[in-house]
Amino acid sequence: MISASPNSLVPRTPLYRWLPVVFVFLLVLYFHPDFSGSTIPTFSPTTVSFGGELDQSAWVKQVLKNHTIGPEITYAARTIQYIPDAKERLSIIEVHHALFPDRFQDITVNSRTSLPVGKTLHVHVKQLSRPDDVDASSLIFGVSTTFGRFNTEKTTPIKEWTRWLTDGKGRSNGAGLVLALYNATDFEIKRSCARLTQAGINATVVASNSQLDMPGRYVDLVQMLYNHPTGRQRKYFALIDDDTFFPYVSELLRTLFKYDYKKPYYIGTFTERVDWILSNHAPMAYGGGGIFLTAPVAREIGTLPCLDKNEEGKYVLGGDQGDRLLYNCLHQHTETTLTYLPLLHQLDQFGDPSGFYESGRQPLSLHHYKSWHNVSPAKIHTVANACGEDCVLQRFKFSDNFIISNGYSVAEYPHGITFDPLQIENTFDIPTENDFHDVLLAYSFGEMRRGLSGTGRKRSWHLLESRRERDGKVCQVYLKKRGDGRWVNEQEGEAHPGRDSVVLLTWVP
User: What is the 3-state secondary structure (H, E, C) of 46-107?
Assistant: First the structure.
């Protein structure tokens, strides 16, 4: 077992010895600021910059270059000043101003020293709760995965974990993490520990029991969490997948504290798929949305024959998935039943996820964002460093028929917003051959309104990159590709635009 903890030991050198070096470096930097031959510095989405408009423009240009956008684009921008005086988080906020009063301009990016940031507009949001305001020391999470998934760029969860397991400034928010790696070598465990330490995540990395199969390793996590050295101080023990994301940790904590941690609770959510609920014949918590146990339940699981197998090597209790095996064990050997928390989400639907992310809901968990659909929660969540966690994915409706789904999209409805925005748009791929296709997602989403793809009634710019420039300021770049057939009515001969289209939003206090 290896624990990740920050190393604060640094060599000490008298300050005066460095002063000549610093002076020379600053002098050279002033007269020759670029050593690479490029005029545009490279920034990561979380780079902190204290510069002004030129720095922001340089970052935007680099983002567009990295994604092969431009140099000829259509462009619009707005600076949004958030005022944290709203009493509650509404699903959609009506703003009685146009988002883009000057509309879009055709520009050539390379010919401009700086890009416009737009006039300042005011919106009202709930009192701020940013990542560095969170104390999550009552939580400990368990994940069972492989080193390959953890370490591969496409599947590594570190960027996402950094958003909800740290304060966003390189320090833990108090939550604990147990990462159990299957068939991992000592080197791989140490490597994983080092990466988590560098990210500021308070983690313990262990090799999972090689004698157990996948369902067994999942259930075995419960005892790893309960017996952890910090287990006594934890109030809720959570089982998650390596692609589970918690966008609103403060709200998650407020919700969990409604359930007395001294009493037995097994908290989770169902799949969104009605047919799967019926075929499973079990009111079980699905693991991707997060399963939360209180200490009495976690302790009792350690005394139960959850992992017993028969002569054929199959589990006596049945269950080919870890979350099902856990449910079967609790159902057959205890009186603990599921406390259903629909704010957690398994996200078991395929296709365009826009209907969900543009709904204005405040989901306590996200899942499948690197497989069944493709979004970047870390980029979406960056705006929490400005207007707070509650304004992530919150919607703002403007008088010129634009709706911002904050961190996900900026959508225009050129023929007007004639629908009920409180209904979810059906953007998903629902198998029509399924006997339940008309109501497949109705249990979770209600009756959905018709999708607008290909009708010409909706144009959407999706988040490309986001960056925290300093405390309270975040920049977002949204993109609408010129060849995206979802935003034109081809059947009526509507022509595709000739340029990619870019929106820049800057959130400021």
Answer: CCCCCCCHHHHHHHHHHHHHHCCCCCEEEEEEEEEEEEEEECCCCCEEECCCCCCCCCCEEE
Q: Are 332 and 326 in contact (CB under 8 A)?
A: no
pLDDT score of 433: 76
Listed residue (75, 20, 37) closest to 497, CA to CA: 75
Q: Among candidates 273, 344, 333, which has minimal Cα distance to 297?
A: 333
Facing residues of 238 across strands? Answer: 141, 292
Which H or E element spans position 207? strand 203-207
The angle subtended at Cα 187 by Cα 183 and Cα 193, nearest 5°, is: 95
- Burial class of residue 6 (count of CB atoms within 10 Å of its CB; 0-12, 13-18, 19+): exposed
Can you tell me whether residue 267 is helix, strand or coil? Answer: strand
Q: Report pLDDT digits (tens) over 286-321.
A: 999 999 999 999 999 999 999 999 988 899 998 889
pLDDT at 35: 29
| The one-letter amino acid at 268 | G
Please tell me the distance from the alpha carbon of residue 84 to that of residue 127, in angstroms, as a whole number.
Answer: 5
CA distance 270 to 340: 8
Contacts of 89 (CB under 8 A, 6+ apart): 125, 126, 362, 390, 391, 394
Q: Report the distance separating Cα 385 and Cα 174, nearest Å.
A: 18
What is the rounded CA–CA span in Å between residue 285 and residue 326? 9
- SS3 of residue 461 by DSSP: strand
CA separation for the pair 48, 46 (Å, rounded): 6
> What's the rounded Cα separation, in Å, for the pair 225 and 231?
7
pTM over 0.85: yes
Rounded distance, CA 456 to CA 487, Å? 6
For residue 331, what are the contacts with CB-CB under 8 A and spacing of at least 6? 282, 337
